[in-house]
Amino acid sequence: MASKMLINTPSDCVDECLRGLVTFNPGLQILQGHRVVVRSDIDKVKADGKVTLISGGGSGHEPAHAGYVGPGMLSAAVAGAVFTSPAPASILAAIQAVTSPGGTLLIVKNYTGDRLNFGLASEQAKGLGMQVDMVVVAEDCALTSADKTAGRRGLCGTVLVHKIAGALAEEGRSLQEIASVCRQAVSAMGTIGLSLSACSLPGRGPSFSLAPDEMELGLGIHGEAGVCRLKVQSARDAVRLMLEHMTNGQSASHLTIGKGDHVALMVNNLGGTSVLEMNIVADEAVQWLEREAGAEVTRAFAGSFMTSLQMAGVSLTVLRLDGTTQRCLDAATQASAWVRPFLADGQTGCMSPCIMKCDERLISPEVCVKGAALTQDVAAKLSAAISAACRVLIAQQDALDDLDRVAGDADCGSTHARGATAILSLLEKQVELVSRPQSFLLAVAASLSREMGGSSGALYSLFFPAAAGELSGSVDSPAWVKALSQGVSAIMRYGGAEPGDRTMLDALQPMCSALQLKIDLRAAAKAAVEGSQQTKSMRAHAGRASYVAADQLTAVDPGAHAVAIWMTALAESLQPA
């Protein structure tokens, strides 16, 4: 049963949220055609040559990140769909809109999709001659993963990094210096969360369940599994448990606090916690840090900084301060969501959103028709098969989301549905491209980069251009097999996962291997299905699923299952029984 929310439609809630934000904050504007919020005075910032700052990620964590756009903090924030990383095209649009002679710093939470999409946009921007650096915030002290593409999560400490970087940028510091100070701050910071209830995505029910007498220690901001579940305790005992776990020194992911250390404390409402509870937790946290750890809480902040929709719970962030970081936390800012906002004298504005136009030439380049051509008959069959595969993916949206719920995201189906819808739109508008597979795959990659989002969107956006490169001179069966193999290699190279890590590769790799032995689409589809089914017994070594205990991962990996779905649909259409 869907949770109660005051929204219009789930599909429009992110856009309407951003529009409402800029309506009541005349210092902000929306970048036309993108879910990007930009400072209204960005032209002056660029003219002054100061470093500009961009952050972002999935929506549902409001006020992060758009609430921290303004003088003294971010230059722009990029929003994805709820709990889904934004598309590289929007990130690149944001970079292009705010880049200055001083360069641009991207501040990114340590989630696979965010790293991939912001990293891809960063590389594209560098290729266009822009000066860009990226700081990844990974300060989670709840648990750590030794796997290649997971690691410590980025949590509420990211907001403190926004503030530190924003103050340094206002001072006119260099891109290199700001990035260095931010990385040092991340290494001196820890965050841990505690939940009393699950978060609920718009139009859906709770993403997991907790018994009435249970709470969960160390969960992620998307509802990812934490350290343990235990009986509900008093605020004092809960805070002690959180901070003792954060500082116990048993792992490199934990924070070291020495007697006499000056620290900043951020008490963050995860979305559904009352002010009464927040004040109690804040008081207990200060007392524990000073009484038990011997630290001096020099700066303290309490409020809703990085939420998880309707989740009842809190997170605690502790930062060891030095002279620079303390000065930066004290510096003035006009960002609307900072706990002590400063307003410019005489600032006025209208009560309707300000829209900033962006240069789409860099973001949506025209696709050149090139590569070997298919006959008209073959192109028509291929177009029909792709349409059929897309329609099946859209029909399986809820089933894929349900499979993905165990890992905390519950968005695999909606992400693939967005991608499938984008491909169907491309087929409708540029059907002639299918006759040139190289051009068509490049157009698909560009479309998915704009529309799909999430880790899957980034990986498919890497897969298709790599595959397209093999179809320039020939489109016979061996060329297609080589193209698919190149696409798989690109996913492995950039995503960091390998077959056996419980990802989409466990369906893609067997499919390619089957085709290399024999050009038989039904046999390849069968191999993809079998590879997908084998993920039931695999331990996750990549992505958010690697945070989940192995005994909870008993269903097929949703990404691998999605591959099996579209490959089966293609085979049935192109090679009827």
Automatic annotation (TrEMBL):
It catalyses: dihydroxyacetone + ATP = dihydroxyacetone phosphate + ADP + H(+); D-glyceraldehyde + ATP = D-glyceraldehyde 3-phosphate + ADP + H(+); FAD = riboflavin cyclic-4',5'-phosphate + AMP + H(+). It comes from the Eukaryota. Keywords: ATP-binding, Cobalt, Kinase, Nucleotide-binding, Transferase. Residues 380-572 form the DhaL domain. It holds the Pfam family Dak2. PANTHER family: TRIOKINASE/FMN CYCLASE (PTHR28629), TRIOKINASE_FMN CYCLASE (PTHR28629:SF4). Its EC number is 2.7.1.28, 2.7.1.29, 4.6.1.15. Pathway: Polyol metabolism; glycerol fermentation; glycerone phosphate from glycerol (oxidative route): step 2/2. The active site is at H222 (tele-hemiaminal-histidine intermediate). Belongs to the dihydroxyacetone kinase (DAK) family. This is Triokinase/FMN cyclase. SMART domains: Dak2. The keyword Signal does not apply. One of its GO terms (biological process) is glycerol catabolic process. PROSITE patterns: DHAK, DHAL. SUPFAM superfamilies: DAK1/DegV-like (SSF82549), DhaL-like (SSF101473). Catalyzes both the phosphorylation of dihydroxyacetone and of glyceraldehyde, and the splitting of ribonucleoside diphosphate-X compounds among which FAD is the best substrate. Represses IFIH1-mediated cellular antiviral response. GO terms for cellular component: cytosol. Substrate binds at G58, S59, G60, H61, K109, D114. Gene3D superfamilies: 1.25.40.340, Dihydroxyacetone kinase, domain 1, Dihydroxyacetone kinase, domain 2. Residues 9-338 form the DhaK domain.
